[in-house]
């Protein structure tokens, strides 16, 4: 209906521009709720960690502190962006954009429900993996362009960490691909339908589910893997020289990435938009709601980790990535392959 | 001009520009970043050819992993540009001969066996055509031996690289993590119960 209206209003334009306008509207329809989620995710983080540490958290701006993220955004918008005089100005300013753009672009293929996908492409799993692997450039370029030792150390740590965990992440997704038999995220979710929670891929792929989520936490530079910005050692790591909106864009990218990893975990292992029990009262709730609920639950773990675990040492991060997570994924890929084709449990692995 | 053609010209312009900058720009880090841009534009052009699997893998492997490691190294180098540019005149004749040879070879291939007349443009595929599935089928049936041999060569290269760089460092303070995990309280801590000396009541 809205589509017809848009095409009617832009009827005087060439068809290519009409389609562009329509896609733009869809992009806005995804990004505006996402940005609101990111803003209130920061609020949720401060509140939740506050309660976990027996504090109240922000409670001054607006009723119960609910306007805090808006006040933060307004503050960051009007603050001065300080550019270090010996930095590389172009790269310094493009680095936050490089880190935010992949975090947003990956949402293009996210299946919010059976019908709600912006671009239902065939290789969407690979597309997501490729884009999340590009987020590291923001960190590296920021660290180098700042011309500061702390920032540079943060960038180096981040580069090494992301290379290590991306391999584990990729192998975990190979398992999903083997079980689902498709690279399309929508078909991966549809493959998990049938018995409700029992047919989600988290059961046959439980080790890969764990590896994927741990790598996701590492990939987003979150605690306990936040050595790239370890404030007790290297102040704020790669974004130590950033202020105002340039810093805010890094901040947005980190939180958008967290929500993205949570949503991808839901799509690939927790049944996407499917209800946990496929009977009457649960199936009345629209799929988007289930998707949002599950994503919030997984995103909550990011906050819980931050409040619970102390930061890993750098060598421990490398050991966990290379010597534990990658071997676990390699073994489980063989288990899935053999289980699917040479044992009577083929039904369990598909 | 269709939309796909428009995209093609935009991305090829960026690709040619980025590739030219890779070899002309002075700063090695910027040069590596331009190489990233070149890879990315090339991937976009492949997408217009409906080769989405190759395009995404190009981004995933070269942009997402290889170039990150490359930047990792390049950023830590302190390259003295004066030394690099010294002897430009001396190498110029050799360089130009090689460049000329390369241009000749490319021209030869392009004009004889690789022209647009030799290969027809791929036709449009149905909506459910899966490029990745098609590629996988070919790799594991028709080209299974070359594929497996390539895999083994890569495996040997990995093992060789690790074997060449692995060394024990006697000054390392590395502690075996399993030993760390196995430590329990009794090994390190002794609680001493002492009787109060019965001092002055406060």
Descriptive key words:
heterodimer; A: 350 residues; mainly alpha; 14 helices; B: 202 residues
Shape designation of chain A: globular
Number of helices of chain A: 14
Return residue spans of chain A where pLDDT drops below 50 for at least 5 consecutive residues. none
Strand count, sense and barrel status of the largest sheet of chain B are: none
Tell me the strand percentage band of chain B: under 5%
Order of helices and strands of chain A: HHHHHHHHHHHHHH
Radius of gyration of chain A: 21 Å
Oligomer: heterodimer
The assigned structural class of chain B equals mainly alpha
Distance between the termini of chain B: 96 Å
Query: Per the principal axes of the C-alpha atoms, what is the gross shape of chain B?
Result: elongated
What is the CA–CA distance across the termini of chain A? 38 Å
Beta-strand content of chain A: under 5%
CA-atom Rg of chain B in angstroms: 29 Å
The total of helices of chain B stands at: 9
The portion of residues assigned to helices of chain A is 55-70%
- Please give the most extensive interface between any two protein chains, plus how many residues each contributes: A-B, 30 and 26 residues
Q: Averaged pLDDT of chain A, please?
A: 84
Secondary structure: number of strands of chain B: 0
């Amino acid at each position: 209906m809205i589509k017809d209206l848009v095409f009617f209003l832009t009827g005087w334009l060439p068809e290519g521009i009409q389609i562009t306008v329509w896609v733009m509207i869809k992009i806005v329809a995804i990004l505006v709720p996402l940005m609101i989620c990111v803003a209130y995710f920061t609020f949720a983080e401060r509140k939740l960690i506050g309660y976990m540490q027996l504090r109240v958290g922000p409670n001054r701006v607006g009723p119960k502190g609910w306007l805090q993220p808006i006040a933060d955004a307004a503050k960051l918008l009007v603050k001065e962006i300080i550019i270090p005089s010996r930095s590389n100005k172009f790269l310094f300013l493009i680095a936050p954009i490089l880190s935010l753009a992949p975090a947003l672009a990956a949402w293009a293929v996210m299946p919010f429900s059976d019908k709600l996908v912006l671009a239902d492409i065939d290789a969407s799993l690979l597309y997501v993996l490729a884009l999340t692997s590009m987020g590291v450039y923001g960190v590296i370029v920021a660290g180098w362009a700042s011309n500061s030792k702390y920032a540079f150390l943060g960038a180096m740590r981040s580069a090494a960490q992301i290379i290590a965990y991306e391999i584990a992440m990729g192998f975990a997704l190979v398992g999903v691909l083997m079980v689902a038999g498709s690279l399309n995220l929508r078909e991966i979710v549809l493959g998990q339908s049938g018995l409700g929670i029992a047919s989600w891929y988290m059961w046959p792929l439980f080790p890969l589910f764990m590896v994927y989520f741990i790598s996701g936490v590492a990939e987003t530079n979150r605690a306990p893997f936040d050595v790239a910005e370890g404030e007790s050692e290297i102040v704020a790591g790669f974004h130590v020289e950033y202020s105002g909106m340039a810093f805010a864009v890094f901040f947005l990218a980190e939180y958008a990435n967290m929500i993205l990893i949570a949503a991808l975990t839901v799509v690939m292992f927790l049944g996407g938009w499917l209800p946990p029990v496929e009977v009457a009262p649960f199936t009345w709730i629209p799929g988007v709601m289930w998707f949002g609920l599950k994503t919030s639950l997984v995103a909550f773990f990011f906050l819980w980790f931050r409040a619970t675990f102390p930061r890993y040492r750098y060598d421990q991060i490398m050991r966990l990535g290379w010597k534990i997570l990658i071997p676990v994924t390699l073994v489980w890929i063989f288990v899935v392959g053999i289980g699917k084709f040479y044992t009577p449990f083929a039904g369990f692995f598909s | 001009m269709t939309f796909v053609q428009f995209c093609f010209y935009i991305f090829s312009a960026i690709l040619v520009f980025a590739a030219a900058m890779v070899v002309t720009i002075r700063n090695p880090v910027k040069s590596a970043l331009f190489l990233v841009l070149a890879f990315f534009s090339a991937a976009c052009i492949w997408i217009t050819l409906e080769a989405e699997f190759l395009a995404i893998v190009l981004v995933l492997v070269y942009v997402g992993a290889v170039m990150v490691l490359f930047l990792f190294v390049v950023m830590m180098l302190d390259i003295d540009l004066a030394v690099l540019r010294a002897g430009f005149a001396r190498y110029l004749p050799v360089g130009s001969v090689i460049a000329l040879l390369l241009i000749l070879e490319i021209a030869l291939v392009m004009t004889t066996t690789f022209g647009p007349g030799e290969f027809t443009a791929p036709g449009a595929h149905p909506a459910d055509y899966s490029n990745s599935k098609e590629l996988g089928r070919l790799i594991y049936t028709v080209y299974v031996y070359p594929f497996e041999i390539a895999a083994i060569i890569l495996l040997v290269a990995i093992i060789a690289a690790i074997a060449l760089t692995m060394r024990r460092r006697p000054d390392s303070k590395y502690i075996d993590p399993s030993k760390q995990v196995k430590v329990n309280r009794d090994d390190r801590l002794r609680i001493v119960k002492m009787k109060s000396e019965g001092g002055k009541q406060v």
